[in-house]
Design goal:
This protein is α+β, with helices and mostly antiparallel strands. Helix 1 crosses helix 2 and helix 1 packs across helix 4.
Length: 248
Amino acid sequence: MTEKIQKVLAHAGVASRRQIESWIEEGRITVNGQQAKIGARIASHDQVFLDGREIKLQKSRQQKTRVLLYHKPEGELCTRHDPENRPTIFERLPLIRNSRWISVGRLDFNTAGLLLLTNDGDLANRLMHPKSNIEREYAVRVRGPVLPETMVTLKKGLMLDDGPARFHDIIDVGGSGSNHWFHVVVKEGRNRLVRRLWEKAGFPVSRLIRVRFGPLALPPYLKRGKFMELTQEEFEAFTHWLTRTPQK
């Protein structure tokens, strides 16, 4: 049986489908000695190479899907290699054979909190896809007094450089002066979306922490720089929730 190359490699944990398509366009993937094409169909016995290194499809396909919850601290990048040699999240993760950890979206260098990682590119693609409509909740500290009308405006939406955006929910959780906190909810993963919305409204963000992704909340006992893996029961509950989540 053959399947599309993007699906096979994503399921094997090579990367998300979007990343794999990018690599194919860059000519970095070959199949049986020939440059791969997007949409080409392959079988498990085909020889697939990424940057000259063979991908063991048979072994990769036999692995069970795993999901990690990682408490990212500020000062780490969600990339595998950094030309400035700054620390990355992947330096702290457990080794995984015949596969790799795929980050479900990113948190920027100065943002902390919950980050999901999986060895299943199909699952990562589903969670990151704009149609998924999955809530991301953040705790955010801003400078300056925020009036009720500003909160209304942020929920109605503002025009950013890449289109309109809004908070689907915003809650004042207290504090005073330069230490005032809010919890906000967005349903898309656009780059620096929470920071840009607040800045557009005239309020610089001094701290930003993601505390929830869909039904998965950042465990209070999970220390910064540490991870935990979903148990089989937790993973099944999560995937059951995902199948019941309507897509736009």
